[in-house]
Every structure is written in C-alpha cells, then in structure tokens.
Amino acid sequence: MPNDWLEADPYLSTIKVISNSDNEPVTIEGNSDVLKCIGIGTDAAVFQYIHLPQYAYKLYSEEKKEKIKQEAEIYHRLGTSSYFSTCYGYHKNYLVLQYEEGITLYDCLLRGIYIPKQVVQDVDNAREYARQKGMNPRDIHLRNILLQNGRAKVIDVSEYLNTGNDYRWEHLRKGYDEYYHLIAGKSIPIFILESIRKWYSQRRIGENQIDDFMQNISKLINFWK
C-alpha cells in the first residue's frame, strides 16, 4: 500500500535526535517498544518499525533536518542500483528507506569478520556510478558501507551534492590495500577504532598526509598486538 510506512509516524514522533559537537554521534531521547534503533550517525539515527520491518527510518536531528529533502533528491537521481538503497519518501524530520540486511565495515573490524577485496571494488564502482549521475560521492567511511553476502552496499548518500573531495574513501582504500592484511579476520578493540576515528576527525587529514597517519595507526596496532 502506498505510504504504508506512515504507520510508524506516531511512534517516531516520540523520539528526539540531538546533534553533538566535534562530529560525535547523535544522542537519542525517548523510546518506543515498537521501534528498534539500528544505526547512529553524526546527523541522524536509523530506526526499524517492528510491524513494517522492510523500512528503515532515518530520523534527523532538528539542526540537520534540512538535509532530508536533499538526500531524497539524491536517491531520486541515483535511481535503481545494486550499490545503493531505495528511498520511498520523507515526512517531517525523517527519510524512509528500504531496510538493508548486513553489517557495517566498522562492525566487521570489531568482530573480526573478513572484508573481501570485492567490497572495495564495489565501492569504487558505486562512486563511479554516482559520478555518471552527476553527483560527487563523498563522506564514505566504515559505518556507511554494509557487507552483504560478500558485496558492498553504500547506505549514506547525504553529501553527494556537496562540492570538494574529503578523501575519506581514498584513505580507506589505501589503508585496505597496504595494511588490512595485518589485521584481516582479527577482532579490533573498540578503543583502537574510536581512537583512530577521533584522530582522523581532529587532524582533518589531507590528500598528502595519510602516509604519516597510517604509520601512527600501525604503531598503535602493533603495540596492541
């Protein structure tokens, strides 16, 4: 039924998402027995409504809800693609997406789940596909990529109309190519992953600074090992 996803609206209205400074994940206030939080980002949190589990509701903070229409427009431009999810619409302060099975690459590192080379190639292909649609694929990081049966699904496209290159994917790809073999299949403690995330965000690593950054990460991992 068209717009059947609106059934979740009264329950989503009881949830408040609050942005935090320093690019930290949002804070959530309120709860509902019929909503399950399945993801937290720096602008929004994602919920699943137990009676319509085929949908994912991306609930934005009040400060960032201007991004909702922009992200819906990006999904419209992307059209149907195996690399991206599907957007069914938006309402108030949330976007309605197709629920995607899988585990983020961030959680793969936490749990020691192997990330195959095909995932990296899929993200490269997804970026090229988005460029062909006239967009600028950026803000691609470990929490924005799902591992699905050995393939990649990119789950956040909100910055694809922004200009400039943040080099986040280029840096991740370089890290995979040159360093991933050292930790492949090993469970990495959360304090290491969070330390790396915060260092990267605070230092605003540029195009030509990643080698020194990678060497520091390698030292941290070797110390842990």
Structure keywords:
single chain; 225 residues; alpha+beta; Phosphorylase Kinase, domain 1; Transferase(Phosphotransferase), domain 1; 2 domains; five-stranded antiparallel beta sheet; 7 helices; Serine/threonine protein kinase; protein serine/threonine kinase activity; transferase; serine/threonine-protein kinase; kinase
What can be said about this structure in brief?
The protein contains seven helices and ten strands. With 225 residues, it is α+β, with helices and mostly antiparallel strands.
- Approximately how much helix is present in the residues? 25-40%
Query: Structural class of the secondary elements?
Result: alpha+beta
> How is the largest sheet built, in terms of strand order?
3-4-5-7-6
Total number of strands: 10
Measure the end-to-end span.
Answer: 53 Å
Q: How is the main sheet built?
A: 5 strands, antiparallel
Any idea of the CATH topology of the largest domain?
Transferase(Phosphotransferase), domain 1
Cα radius of gyration in angstroms = 18 Å
